[in-house]
Amino acid sequence: MNQSEKILKKQRDFFATGVTQEASFRLEQLNKLKQVIQRFEPAILEALHHDLNKSELDTYSTELGMVLSEINYLTKNLVSWMKAKRVKTPLTHIGSRSFIYPEPYGVALIISPWNYPFQLTLAPLLGAMAAGNCAILKPSELSPHVSRVIAEMMSSQFPSEYIAVIEGGAEASTELLNLKFDKIFFTGSVVVGKIVAQAAAQYLTPVTLELGGKSPCIVHKDAKLDLAAKRIVWGKFLNAGQTCIAPDYLFVHKDVKEELVEHMQGYIRNFYGQDSQTMLQNNDLTVIVNDRHFQRLITYLERAHVLAGGGYDEKRRFIEPTILDQVDWNHPVMQEEIFGPILPVLEYEDLEEVIAQVNEHEKPLALYFFSENKGLQDRILQGISFGGGCFNDTVMHIVTPYLPFGGVGNSGNGAYHGKSSFEAFSHQKSILSQSTQFDLPVRYPSFKYALQAIRFLMK
């Protein structure tokens, strides 16, 4: 029996005690997690700076702060979510009562990525804990300092029979996926997501997949261009573009393209540095995670028409926020999710053209549409299938606990955040409590007028 099997068995035994099903236990553990995060904050900040050169502002706003806010929201609402929900009962079931009981799956496996290595490991864990599960975490080996801190943090506060962290590369993930879990939650690429789904299928394990894809940003001619430019630049180049819901390409109406790009160039200078030399010398900007991803990204800059940026520092793995022009769907940058600080720009005349082109490709995880026209917003909403998004903003839909976050089709399945996190790790058990005070004879074949009665009741 290898290490993963031993931990899984210990967690199954612990779950079987029923301790995790108690509301007091769940709340206590969530509060303990909040305390240990606060205690390890300096180490978390340092680890994220090591792995991605993240600033303290970016780390707190996109990693630590989001997790702490989520804990507060879960602990405030958990007891009410745990209660059995009474639902209606049809006339055919007269005398009975119907309830839905949310119950934990058991032992969950959470596999997380490197781009937001702390937040995307802890956020699903919160849902697993709130729902009363045990969990095994597998952080990404591409962010090793964060992975180590998470392992140290968890082992300092929680016994491994409740929460465990397994570090390592692809071989560790493969070892885990060969085991039978009660729930699998995966965040990462489409390619690996398919492998996870296949592994889950052998045991019919329920799985949530948070993947990615090419998320469009569309700017219509009636948009408030200065504000649109500001929000697009922020959302695209946050975390050096290494965000699964970042605008992957920009569709802009030809009448306002030049003006929008000018505003975007201004905000790039305002946010990151007044010129190329300043940006390249700024050691506080987020870098690309490793050499392989860096080399992949700079190939997009070859023979490209650059409107802004384009410079890079190979030693630091830094790429300037870059805008590309004269791009079509055959360009290499449009063949896969970019996942870096490069934004290709396409122009359009008719919004229906945009809808048709987006729909010719896989369903995106996010979509952003800038327009003051409610009718056009409705047309986008009804005309394109996507995971979630914003009108007149980017990325911000992921921050609210009141909106479920998840993909559709190739961009994933299932959702989490807020109550959706609790539901993602809960089975909804349906119970009918039947009366014993009387027994309606109509359902039994011995009843003379059974057919007529059933027809009447079920019409």
Automatic annotation (TrEMBL):
GO terms for molecular function: aldehyde dehydrogenase (NAD+) activity. Gene3D superfamilies: Aldehyde Dehydrogenase, Chain A, domain 1, Aldehyde Dehydrogenase, Chain A, domain 2. This is Aldehyde dehydrogenase. GO terms for cellular component: cytoplasm. GO terms for biological process: aldehyde metabolic process. The keyword Oxidoreductase applies. The active site is at residues 210, 244. Residues 20-431 form the Aldehyde dehydrogenase domain. Belongs to the aldehyde dehydrogenase family. It comes from the Bacteria. Keywords: NAD, Oxidoreductase.
